[in-house]
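Module 6 notes. Inverse folding takes a fixed backbone as the condition and produces residue identities as the prediction. Think of it as a translation problem where the source language is geometry and the target language is the twenty amino acids. Below is one complete input and output pair. Work through it position by position during the lab.
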């Protein structure tokens, strides 16, 4: 999921990558062999960005996409990718807007041998920021912060003012002065090539002083191409620019093959494996399958019992690191009883988080009090303050006190006050004045230890506060569909309030995209949070100079304090991640900031 973001800042965002890249015009010599099989939970098959996705879909995207203008190092540093960018110049225009001009190398190619030019990078902005892409069912923040973005995104202009195609290998993007300063400034300008010849054959880019626009070939409509990508290419992206090319997806298995035209990573590395296969496997046996050799690696293992088993096995090694994320009970805050923050807080007092951690993590994690991961530098800066937040502990008395402040304070007649003293083993529930029962519907995944323990906790404790709690289970794809896209349903069709999930952050912690009201009614703001105070804090966080880490850390703490008050998610744990892999697999040096799919060129057998 997005979702989703931690940052270790370098002294400056634009850090030159000191590497020995393949000289321009030289065809790389890729000597790849062997196959890596990685076990994963269910893969939804969204391999083009813009749709709610799992982390496992993102693995595929990382493998097949490449040549972004910026890259992330294993230490979490954002660097200019000099394998892609030959020269970068920045300047202010007469109005005070900031122009980034990129000249790309001339020897970049897609996996079908087609040359990559500046048009492919411009196409990236014009495609993903287009209102037609939104009409096709996608969401995107590409181009946000650039001059003319709003008018183009809303369809008020057919040209994107801040995008300029200069020559075959040079283009520029202009950041709107009103959007500066921004703590993650370079992310406004980061882009990657998109294969226009495969996504929208015959489409051209027209450039004038008012900006760039897409022009469909005669007799065609742009909408036709957008729809085809959203409904077909999305599941079968055969043309791409990364270290691997998409081969197939079926029966829960994705296969990719080495891209012989790939020039290399930001630090000059080439793929060493011929094939990579991602295979959906049951999560209760994932480590066993790695130990037995059915798969070569499983990642993100959090259960203590599994970790101990992997450590003890002679056939596997482990790589561990503090998790750049957390797990919790995620809540739809715009629907039913959970639209009331007091109900959300009451639920948090009806679960023994320490017991969940003991049963699931076996000592390899700790409780969290907010929207953060243990690997975040901001957490380290504010650890004492965060750890001093009131802890959610199992406390039915506190839960009842909170629920008495809500509409759910009566017995079934809608008049008699609910009396916690009457609570037995179940059957006595809270109602509102209309006689509607307080019911929470939860959705979790099958064969999931976290789901099991969330169910144990709420079934044992929810009734003590007069809540009828029930659970349904399904596969991970079904959970993501219900979690991300419930806002599209008619209110009468909405059913589930809570979901147990986990999220990992990326290199930039900008919660604007997860919680700001600007993103209501999209899958970005999945919990459908609408809080003006939180909005204000997030905007303050964004509007800082990239060098001002101290103030950013201060606002980060303010964000955590307000987030805790509105509680769109009950935080359960942050933990150490253990990646388990066969002893014959080498180079599996994952970090909190780069997963295995991002360092694939380091991995070999």
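Target side of the pair, the amino acids:
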């Amino acid at each position: 999921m997005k979702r989703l973001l931690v940052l270790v800042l370098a002294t400056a965002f634009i850090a030159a990558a000191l590497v020995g890249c393949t000289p321009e015009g030289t065809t790389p010599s890729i000597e790849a062999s062997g196959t890596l099989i990685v076990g994963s939970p269910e893969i939804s098959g969204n391999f083009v960005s813009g749709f709610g996705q799992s982390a496992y879909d993102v693995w595929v995207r990382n493998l097949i996409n490449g040549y972004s203008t910026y890259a992330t190092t294993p230490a979490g540093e954002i660097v200019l990718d000099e394998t892609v960018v030959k020269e970068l110049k920045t300047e202010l225009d007469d109005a005070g807007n900031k122009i980034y001009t990129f000249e790309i190398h001339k020897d970049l190619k897609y996996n079908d041998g087609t040359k990559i030019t500046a048009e492919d990078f411009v196409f990236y902005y014009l495609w993903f920021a287009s209102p037609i892409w939104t009409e096709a069912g996608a969401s995107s923040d590409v181009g946000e912060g650039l001059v003319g973005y709003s008018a183009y995104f809303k369809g008020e202009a057919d040209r994107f003012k801040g995008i300029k195609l200069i020559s075959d290998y040079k283009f520029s993007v202009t950041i709107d002065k009103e959007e500066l300063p921004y703590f993650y400034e370079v992310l406004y300008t980061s882009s990657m090539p998109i294969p226009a010849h495969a996504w929208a054959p015959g489409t051209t880019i027209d450039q004038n002083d008012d900006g760039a626009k897409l022009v469909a070939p005669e007799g065609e409509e742009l909408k036709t191409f957008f729809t085809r990508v959203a409904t077909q290419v999305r599941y079968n992206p055969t043309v791409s620019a990364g270290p691997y090319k998409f081969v197939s997806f079926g029966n829960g298995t994705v296969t990719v093959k080495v891209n012989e035209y790939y020039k290399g990573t930001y630090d000059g590395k080439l793929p060493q494996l011929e094939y990579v296969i991602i295979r959906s496997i049951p999560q209760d046996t994932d480590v066993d399958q790695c130990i037995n050799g059915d798969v070569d690696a499983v990642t993100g293992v959090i259960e203590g019992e599994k970790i101990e088993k992997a450590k003890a096995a002679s056939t596997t090694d482990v790589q561990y690191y503090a998790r750049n994320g957390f797990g919790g009970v995620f809540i739809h805050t715009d629907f039913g009883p959970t639209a009331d923050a007091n109900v959300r807080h009451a639920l948090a007092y009806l679960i023994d988080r320490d017991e969940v951690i003991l049963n699931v993590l076996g000592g390899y994690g700790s409780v969290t009090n907010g929207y953060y991961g243990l690997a975040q530098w901001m957490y380290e800066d504010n650890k004492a303050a965060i750890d001093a937040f009131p802890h959610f502990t199992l406390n039915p008395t506190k839960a009842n006190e909170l629920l008495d402040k809500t509409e759910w304070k009566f017995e079934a007649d809608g008049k008699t006050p609910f009396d916690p003293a009457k609570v037995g083993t179940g059957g006595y529930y809270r109602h509102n004045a209309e006689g509607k029962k307080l019911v929470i519907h939860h959705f979790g995944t099958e064969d999931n230890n976290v789901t099991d323990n969330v169910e144990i906790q709420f079934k044992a404790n929810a009734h003590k506060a007069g809540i009828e709690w029930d659970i349904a289970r399904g596969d991970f794809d079904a959970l993501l569909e219900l979690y991300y896209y419930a806002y599209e349903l008619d209110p009468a069709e909405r059913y589930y309030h809570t979901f147990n999930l986990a999220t990992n952050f990326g290199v930039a912690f900008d919660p604007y995209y997860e919680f700001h009201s600007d993103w209501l009614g999209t899958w970005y703001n999945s919990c459908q949070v609408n809080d003006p105070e939180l909005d204000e804090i997030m905007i303050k966080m964004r509007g800082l100079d990239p060098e001002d880490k101290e103030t950013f850390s201060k606002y980060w703490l303010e964000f955590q304090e307000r987030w805790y008050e509105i509680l769109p998610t009950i935080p359960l744990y942050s933990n150490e991640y253990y990646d388990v892999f066969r002893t014959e697999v080498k180079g599996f040096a994952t970090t909190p900031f780069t997963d295995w799919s991002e360092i694939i060129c380091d991995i070999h057998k």
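Reference fact for the lab report: The CA atoms of residues 131 and 153 lie 5 Å apart.
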